[in-house]
Specification:
It comes from Paenibacillus woosongensis. This is EAL domain-containing protein. The protein has about 290 residues and is α/β, with parallel strands linked by helices. The protein has helices spanning about 1-5, 15-35, 75-85, 85-105, 120-125, 130-140, 160-170, 190-195, 205, 215-230, 240-250, 265-275, 280-290; strands spanning about 40-50, 55-65, 70, 115-120, 145-150, 175-180, 200, 230-235, 255. Bound molecules: ligand C2E and magnesium ion (3 copies).
């Protein structure tokens, strides 16, 4: 103990930590103004069907370009926004923007696909959350079946309290998915009880497959688990052809990752909608074949 005190004593000053702290305070201060100044935008990452490679949806991912600090990753500013509560406002903006854009694409005649929006636990717990989502859908005119909300396991620490909220979103026709699955602590009971349609397997399980035997067999089990619960299973962070092939082989339903596409800005996403084969096209094609 004495040794530790010497190392961390007053003569030792941690400039790295101070830097981090100042950066944090700086970001905290900048966030609200960034919203009013229009510094946030959404990028969209495709999700594809593992068997046919047809586009099955797009996930909205927030981007921030600060005039002074440059591009700041959501992985650093979202947790800060959660701590200050600003995430409630920011998340509402994301939902508006995603629904408005999806509706705009649909009205322009592109294939109709669901748009996924990430929802932080702090935002979800807000008493007006469900009301707010319904309001945004009404105002933008987007059919609820084209909205998917991505929730993380951190939300499930009080499953009975959230069940009611999830049920009313589900009743409205909105899809619900569990993001980053495998990194939190949800029990099978919760997965069985809560109205979740999609299981998104965290990318840490995909990274070392198929070379790691252990991760590969874990993946098989997770896919099997998801399917026995009647869920659609999606693998996140698929980067290589080899990973894609393996996931296809073991029956994963959908994939997302740099292998198919990085998140795209609005214009590039629109271009993709114009050219890619979409799930809707396949459905249309199947019905004309009958
Ligand atoms: P997430 O929802 O799990 O999103 C996936 C993240 O992995 C995204 O990072 C995406 O760009 C990245 N990614 C996708 N494919 C690959 C791949 O093949 N390899 C690698 N290495 N990475 C890949 P991003 O956009 O930086 O977002 C990070 C996290 O920040 C998100 O994780 C989500 O938790 C949060 N986030 C992003 N946008 C929002 C938002 O609008 N609201 C909330 N509440 N959270 C958001
Ligand atoms: Mg997500
Ligand atoms: Mg994820
Ligand atoms: Mg994540």
């Amino acid at each position: 103990e004495a040794k530790i005190e010497v190392l961390n004593g007053p003569h030792y000053f941690d400039y790295y930590l101070l830097d981090k702290l100042l950066e944090r305070v700086n970001i905290e201060k900048k966030l609200p103004r960034a919203l009013t100044e229009g510094e946030f935008e959404l990028h969209y990452q495709p999700k594809i069907d593992a068997a046919t490679r047809a586009l099955t949806g797009l996930e909205a991912l927030i981007r921030w370009n600060d005039p002074e600090l440059g591009r700041i990753s959501p992985a650093s500013f979202i947790p800060i926004a959660e701590d200050t509560g600003f995430i409630v406002q920011l998340g509402e903006w994301v939902l508006w923007e995603a629904c408005r854009t999806n509706k705009k694409w649909q009205d322009a005649g592109y294939p109709k696909l669901p748009i996924s929006v990430n929802v932080s636990a702090v935002q979800f717990r807000h008493p007006h959350f469900v009301h707010m989502v319904k309001h945004v859908l009404e105002q933008t005119g987007l059919d609820p079946k084209y909205l998917e909300l991505e929730l993380t396991e951190s939300l499930i620490n009080n499953p009975m309290m959230i069940k009611e909220k999830l049920d009313s979103l589900k009743e409205k026709g909105i899809s619900l998915s569990l993001d980053d699955f495998g990194t939190g602590y949800s029990s099978i009971y919760y997965l069985k009880t809560l109205p979740l349609q999609v299981l998104k397997i965290d990318r840490t399980f995909i990274q070392e497959t198929p070379s790691s035997q252990r991760d590969s067999s874990l993946l098989r089990s997770i896919i099997e688990l998801g399917k026995s619960l009647g869920m659609t299973v999606l693998a996140e962070g698929v980067e290589t052809e080899e990973q894609f092939k393996f996931l296809q082989e073991i029956g994963c339903d959908q994939i997302q990752g740099f292998y198919y596409s990085r998140p795209l800005d609005e214009q590039a996403a629109e271009q993709l909608l114009r050219t890619a084969t979409c799930k809707e096209d396949l459905v249309l094609h199947e019905s004309t074949c009958k």
